[in-house]
Design brief:
Blueprint (H helix, E strand, L loop, with lengths): L3 H15 L3 H20 L9 E8 L5 E3 L1 H12 L8 E10 L4 E10 L2 E2 L5 E2 L2 E12 L2 E11 L6
Length: about 160
């Protein structure tokens, strides 16, 4: 039978295994900042530096695009049309490590005004995006992201 002290030590060691240093957290944050820099410059030429080859993207409309090449094609299309000139500014970022190799990053951001192809105008819209960031060959890379427009409460 395990003693309570042994159980407590095992739990602390397990928690420590998933904790990361401030340096690793900053490396994860830098990857997410690179994504937003690509968004705001409307150029995704550096995406291979911060995304995996099998990157998945879930857009605010619920579309699910798989693979970096397909995601970049979609992003270039929308950034050359209705998102042309639109900026997305990080308001808050939280990093949680699921393991030594996986981090989940939640970001709230504020987008500048844009009009969708259906004519719906979006002003000062807040977005909530979740990133799954993985360590591969000592590099942190975005493996998946999902973007959701934050619903405004009914008046």
């Amino acid at each position: 039978m395990k003693t309570p002290l042994f159980t407590l030590i095992a739990l602390l060691l397990t928690a420590e295994a998933f904790a990361q240093s401030p340096v690793e957290e900053e490396r994860v944050r830098a990857v997410v900042h690179s994504f937003y820099a690509g968004f705001n410059s409307h150029g995704w030429t550096q995406a291979a530096d911060y995304t995996t080859e099998d990157w998945n993207h879930i857009n605010p409309g619920g579309g699910w695009t798989r693979g970096r090449a397909a995601v970049l094609k979609e992003l270039e299309e929308v950034h050359n049309t209705f998102l042309k000139g639109v900026s997305d500014t990080i308001e808050e970022m939280a990093v949680r490590f699921a393991s030594a190799e996986v981090a989940v990053v939640t970001v709230t951001s504020r987008m500048s005004t844009f009009t969708m192809p259906d004519g719906v105008r979006h002003e000062n819209e807040q977005h909530l995006r979740t990133f799954v960031v993985v360590r591969r060959d000592d590099r942190w890379l975005i493996m998946q992201d999902q973007n959701t427009a934050v619903a405004r409460p009914n008046p």
